[in-house]
Amino acid sequence: MQPYELTLAQAAEALRSRRLSPVELLDSVLDRMEQVEPHLQAYVTVTADRARRAARAAEKEIAAGRHRGPLHGIPMGLKDLIDVVGMPTSAGSRVRAGHRARSDSTVAARLSAAGAVLVGKTHTHEFAYGLITPQTRNAWRGDRVAGGSSGGSAVAVAAGTATFALGTDTGGSIRVPAALNGVVGLKPTYGLVPLHGVTPLSWSLDHVGPLTRTVEDAALVLTALAGHDPRDPTSVAGPSEDYRPGADADLTGLRVGVPRSYYFDHVDPEVEAAVRGALDRLQDLGAQLVEIEIPLSRYLQATHWGLMVPEATACHEGTLRTVPDHYQADVRVLLEAGALMSAADYLRAQRARALMRQEWARVLAEVDLLAAPTVPVTAVKAGQETVTWADGTVEGVADAYVRLCSPANITGFPSLSVPVGHDTAGLPIGMQLLARPLGERVLLRAGHAYEQTQPAPAGALAPVT
Amino acid sequence: MSSPGLTPWETARWAARAGVPLPPGRHDAVAAVVLHIHRVVAILRELDFGDTPPASVYHAEEETHRAAV
Questions:
Q1: What is the number of domains present in chain A?
Q2: Which residues of chain B does A200 touch, with a Cβ-Cβ cutoff of 8 Å?
Q3: A462 domain residue, yes or no
Q4: Pick from A311, A338, A365: which residue ends a domain?
Q5: Distance between CA atoms of residues A315 and A325, nearest Å
Q6: Chain B interface, mutation test: which of A336, A346, A403, most B Cβ atoms within 10 Å?
Q7: Which of A14, A37, A399, B17 has the fewest beta carbons closer than 10 A?
Q8: A250 plus A140 within the same structural domain
Q9: What is chain A's mean pLDDT, rounded?
């Protein structure tokens, strides 16, 4: 096994015990990048020299007995919406030409303090306003979309060109590309991970979180990221904690809600079969499956759009006036149309969100978590615009990818996407677990336990074809 | 729920009023997207909100900007 193939937890243990040095690990990741990055295009910028300096510094510190923790010396990628001091944050847009971040985002600063080694900034759909990331290819099949908007981060992790990465999620943008590339994606509770220095798309729906190869790896990254930041008005108070799940895979007593409606409507049969198979594994581990109804599901898309569309336009109002032709066509028209949303529409969406939060809290008082598909279809072909369902209904690809993810953005509840198999074309399938606010521990425990049921160890790399 | 659309001319006028003037060649495309968004969000009018206030919360203490735009 080459060092780039190690999961974060495996690499951390090898570095801690000095069986591997941070420089050796980085060299292996950079060699891997030379092989596959020309094909995948996951990165906007590769910071090899900076990374080598950081890896040498980590090597010296660890050799001197100053091991900072599991992220020390680990190569990572950051979605190019996340500020790193002195580097441009392109946000995938010409609008940002000449940008240079004046300070680190909170997440970049925390990862740097934990000793992680930045290998580069990863591609995003322009300003995170889309589900494709057209710059990047899917790690499993080059003719398929990477998903988005954190497509570069998901593909880098799936291909072994980053041991972990960060993404952002406003309607599924961590979980969608995680599912489409066979990696783990965690959208934490709204406010748990500070957004200071992360380019916004929609303030009330935005989240930042990890993309990793295993659930345990996501827990290790979350531990470094979570915690209050007074510079972020949405940041929740409270002490940081260790999220690493225990080794015990016994889920006896855990009540897992299985939606009777919404989450299995208009879902590809192979996706549904894989998720129901994973539910059986959770049951084998002692979990109790409980059928639940999804409240107010008719109003989910309207609420999500009613919040996101005007907030995104508000974020971009100035540059929409000054450099409108610098935006890509798909993003520009959405931003322009958002200017015509009324305050009444926005307030109606905020009131609907309040009702939903109340109703979802009632559902999640009856069960410990909810399990469902992350996305209703696997990665579609690049350029495909619609999905046609068995009943003849035609749905836009972006609408389909957002549909099952947006409830966790509207409510702010945490959600974890875990790989649960492949379709007959060999494309990955993801299962989504949702919990009560600040219920990350139960998500990570259940996801980690599920991974232990699989015959092959979790965290295998994509074949990159 | 019926959703009356805006003509391209009305779209341009309302966009200018909102502070986002549209070049003439964009009126039709934006009008079509506005209509689509409106049809999606209009169903929220079906809900009985009672006295439910908006989910957004105002904090009286001073806030700081987090954005990097």
A1: 2
A2: 66-67, 69
A3: no
A4: A338
A5: 17
A6: A336
A7: B17
A8: yes
A9: 97
